[in-house]
Amino acid sequence: MQPTPNTRSTEPSTKPAAALPGLSHLKAAGPLIALVLLCIAGAFLNPDFATVDNLMNVLTRTAFIGIIAVGMTFVIVSGGIDLSVGSMAALIAGAMIVAMNALVAGAGAPGAATVICAGIALALACGAVFGIAHGLLITRGRIEAFIVTLGSLGIFRAVLTWLSDGGALTLDFNLAEAYSPVYYQSVLGVPIPVWVFALVAVGGTVILNRTAYGQHVQAIGSNEQVARYAAIRVDRAKVLTYLLLGVCVAIATILYVPRLGSATPTTGILWELEAIAAVVVGGTSLRGGSGRVMGTVVGAILLSVIGNILNLTSIISVHLNPAVQGVVIIAVAYLQRGRR
Asked: Does the residue 60 lie in any domain?
């Protein structure tokens, strides 16, 4: 009997080639490499860029958007979006100022520290309530996240405009003096907002990467239907992501109010653009399913460094900074096309 000939095909395999060992790590480090190169370029373009005071200023200004972006990372990883964070921050700031001024003006007014603590508690409560409302409308109401947050964006901004009668809500002078150290004070040479940003970033990293909830968020973003089959409580996890984002917005607002001591209808304009840009630049997929909080932190700092360099060098008008961020979002989304 003749032996059976070897019928193994000699055609090239259609299986994708295995990824190079360090390629995924190189991609993950891309934003950090870009930040380092950008800082080197900034130092060459203007010597003032590399000063400690300027770098602390950049980090302090990054803290507000960075804290919000940490919460936005969870929402985008889960496959959602929130376009209302800037307007939400503005309304929370206005509510804080109105409530704190009312407490001071009342009979038998408590001390400044008590009033400030009450304002902080109100801010956290508002952020949590707004986040839960978004989550319930999206999960229980079966409304697209884009529509829900686009609608609340208008609502929040309109309510603040009504509260301020189209003008500015200003914190009582004595309260502003007592509250200002929250923004201007430093600990070990590092401003308080930067410390808070660091704590939020570390907490977000632990939650996303080291907890069952974080794994559920990533599973939902990868494939929500499969996550339901896996007995993951999808609706609850989604509500928690928006709750987390609302609390992050409240924390950022608590740090922002003592900076100017006021809130106007233009407070928080384009914060949602900056937060989303920080998330996508940091490597989180806009389609959901994967993301890194530390990448978001690097993305937020990178965008702030770009703005700072533009301000110091006058390469283009500072009014075009949002345009630069918009271009960044579109470019990263283009590069991510087809990625899940």
From this structure: yes
Query: Phi-psi bin for 51: left (phi > 0), alpha (psi -120 to 50), beta?
Result: beta
Angle (CA) 242 67 318, round 5°? 115
Which of these, 74, 61, 23, 24, lies nearest to 293 by C-alpha position? 74
Residue type, 196: V
Give the residue among 263, 290, 268 at the shortest CA–CA distance from 279.
290
pLDDT tens digit sequence for 170-191: 998 888 899 999 999 999 989 9
Give the count of domains, the chain.
1
DSSP 221-287: HH-HHHHHHTT--HHHHHHHHHHHHHHHHHHHHHHHHHHHSEE-TTTTTTHHHHHHHHHHHTT--TT
- On whether the CB atoms of residues 232 and 97 are closer than 8 A, the answer is no
Q: Rounded to two decimals, what is the model's pTM? A: 0.87
Cα–Cα dist 312/317, whole Å: 11
- Residue 339 lies inside a defined structural domain of this protein: no
| Residue 256 domain-assigned (yes or no) | yes
Q: What is the pLDDT of residues 43-77, one digit of tens each?
A: 888 888 888 888 899 999 899 999 999 999 999 99
Kindly state the tokens that stand for 124: 């956290």
In a domain? residue 292: no
- Residue 47 gets which letter from DSSP? G
Q: Of 84, 121, 114, 123, which Cα lies nearest the Cα of 175? A: 114
Q: Do 268 and 5 contact (CB within 8 A), yes or no?
A: no
Query: Range of 76's domain?
Result: 50-269
Tokens of 74: 């969870």
CA distance 239 to 301: 28
Closest CA to 34 of 330, 321, 282, 340: 282
